[in-house]
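ugh ok fine here u go
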Amino acid sequence: MKSGFVHLLGKSNVGKSTFINRIIGDKVTITSDKPQTTRNRVKCIYNQDDAQVIFLDTPGLHEPENSLGSYLVEEARKGIKGSDLLIYMVEPWKEVLSDERPFFKKIAGQDVDVVLLVNKVDIHSPAEIAKTLEAYEEEGIFEEYIPISALTGDGVGSALQVIINHLPEGERLFPRDMVTDKPLGFLISELVREKIYKLTYEELPYSVATQTRSYKKRESEDLFEAFVDIYVVRNSQKGIIIGENGKKIKQIGRRAREDLEKLVGSKVYLDLKVKVSKNWNRKTETIESLTGFESE
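structure:
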């Protein structure tokens, strides 16, 4: 039996969350084309008969522009110590990016193996992939190099086997039927935030937070009720989310409800309220309360 913690690192929008969802088989962490979508370290648990892999999905590495950005970078750095394996994910951009090297020094200082995943090979040429592999091999910190497509699944099975091979022997650390350490309320609010990103991609910056106010199951009606607050920093952003005659927020609610019904296995009533919390993304205490950051 193999078990252990695998810390997944990489720049924003390289596909870390898509990779984990592909392996787990459930939507346990949200995705979008928008960089910096992931805001927390989410433990995502993969089980098979002879292995349990606890993936830590983290915010992407980037140059922070405000307090929220600084928190995201700090979340990505936390948890490296104590991991049994580090996975660093890149795209085939043919060279090592200059802002990655300082982080590589921190990785190299850990007494743990590091595996490189080159994602999105389905949309890049073999020459670009080969050049990328050569560039990162020169860094001298990676044990193995695996090209994959998290979107199509190409190479993901091989990557999973490599990951399991690098883990120590040990018993399961979580129950076999558990797929994430986050509570249901967190997953509900994240599903809503994902739909907001996808439906307001061009209009809205990263200044949106979602928080589940309450939820409950009405057993007599086979109906699940959830009440979620959406926070923005300005009144103009509130209008963007609500849309003309409430059209946008109805779209957001409908799409989030479809995913939530799959998650809870029943019909769902979803109530969304949009609120203004001025400059919440620049205030430490508000960031912690609205995003669920773990303080360490």
